[in-house]
Amino acid sequence: MRIEPISNTCRQSVLNRIAGYCLALTLAIVAQDTAESSATTLHDYVAHAMRANPAIAALRSKVASAGYAVKLSTALPEPSLSAGYFISEVETRVGPQRAKLGASQNIPWPGKLQAQRGVAEANAAATHQELETARTELAAAIADVYAALYATGRAISISHDNLKLLRYMERVLRTRYAAASVAQTSVLKVQVEAAVLDDNISSLGSRAATQRERLKALLGGEFTRPIDFPHELPDLAPDPAQDALIDSLKLLNPALQRAAFLTLHAERNVTLAKAALAPDFMLMTDYIITEETSSSMVTPGENGKDPWIIGLSFTLPLRITTNASEISQARALRAQAAAGEKDLRNTLSARAVEFYRHYHDTQRKIALYESVLVPKARQTLSLLQEAYANSQATLLDFLDAQRRLLDLEIEYARLQAQLLQTTGRLDMLTGGAKLLSKADYSTPVSRETDL
Fold first, then answer.
1. Coil, strand, or helix at residue 91?
2. pTM (2 decimals)?
3. Number of domains comprising the chain
4. What are 98-110's pLDDT values in tens digits?
5. Predicted confidence band at 140 (pLDDT cuts at 50, 70, 90)?
6. Is 76 exposed, middle or buried, given 0-12, 13-18 or 19+ CB atoms closer than 10 A?
7. Cα torsion at 107, 113, 115, 118 (round to 10°)?
8. In terms of DSSP H, where are the helices of 179-253?
9. d(CA 407, CA 158)
10. CATH number at residue 332
C-alpha cells in the first residue's frame, strides 16, 4: 500500500507529533526518574520480611527451643524420695522399727552427659543454620518478585507510551480518511494494533496484581503500605572470580553449614551410643525411725537409736547385642549424613557455576541491547517516521518498526530484572551477604510496625 501525498503543513505536523511521542518514550527508557520518590526499596522489603514472615518466626522459635535443649541435656535425672511405715514392726535390740525414709539419685557414667550435650549442641547449630537458610531463600525470593515487578512496570509504561502514539496516529488517519486522503485500511490497521496493545496492557496489569500478592505473602501477609513498581534495581554484582565465588559458597552457605552440623550431630550420636555400654550409678540413703525399748539390756545411748544407711548400685550392661545394633545404626546415619553433605556441596557448586555463567550471559545481552539493538531500532523508527511523513514508506512498515522497538525495550527491561534475579540467587548461595546486610531483623517487632 502506498500513502497518498499530503500537504507539507500536515506532513510536518504529523512528523513533529510522532517525534515528540518517540522522544518521550526514549527518555523513559534511557533515564531514571530523577524526582525523589518514597518508593520502598528492595532492602526495605527484605528487612520487613525478616521481622514479619511467619515461617521465619517459626524457625526463630525452633532455634530458641534447641538452645533450651542444650541446657537441659546435662541435667541429672530427678532424685527420688521414699517413705514407708512398718505395719508389722521389726523388733531389734535397740527397739522396734516403725517407719523408713529414703532418697536416691541416678548418676550417669562420666562422659554420658557430655556426649548428650554434644548431640544437643550440634542439633542447635544445625537448627540455627536452618533459620539462616530460610532467611537467605526468603531474601532471594523477594528479590525475584521485586525484579519481576520492575520488568512488568517498565513494560506497562513503555506500552502506554506506544499506545498514546497509536491513538494519536489513529486520530490523524481518521481525519485524513474523512478527507478521503487515506484508505480505510490504514485506520483499521492502527485500530487493530492499538487494541492488541491495550489488551497486552490489561494482561500486564493482571500479572502485576499477582506479583504484588506474592510479594505481600512473602512479607508476612499483612503489609499495609502500597507496593509500587520499582524505579530502579540495586546492584548485587557477585565476586568477579568464579573460584572465589565457589570458595565463598563453601564457607558461607547456610544450607551447607547445616549439612556439616548434621554430620557432626550424627558423629556425636555414635559417641553417645558407645557411651550407653557403660553402667549408670544410683546413690541411695535410708533413715529408719526406731522407738525406744523397755529392755534393761540396752544402754541409754543405744535405746531407740535410728539407723542410717548409705548404698550404691549400678546397672549391668547386659544389652550388648542390642547396643551393638544401636552403634551400627548410628554409624550408618553418620555415613548417610556425610554423603548427603558431600552431595549438597557438589550440587550447590554446580548451581553457583550455572548462575555465574547465566549472570555473565545476561550482562552480555544487556550490553548488546544497550549499544546495538535498541539504538538501531530507534534509528530505524526515526527514519521510517520521516519516510512515512514524506509518503516514501507504508504505514505497515512504520507499525512493524514501532512494534519491534516496543519488543526490544520490553525485553531489555526483562533482562535487567533477570540480572537481579540471578545475582539474588548467587547471593543466596553465598549466605545473603548483600541482600541481608542492610536488613535489621535482630529484634522482632509487631507486624503493624512501619518500615
1. strand
2. 0.80
3. 1
4. 899 999 999 998 8
5. very high
6. exposed
7. 170
8. 184-218, 242-252
9. 10
10. 1.20.1600.10
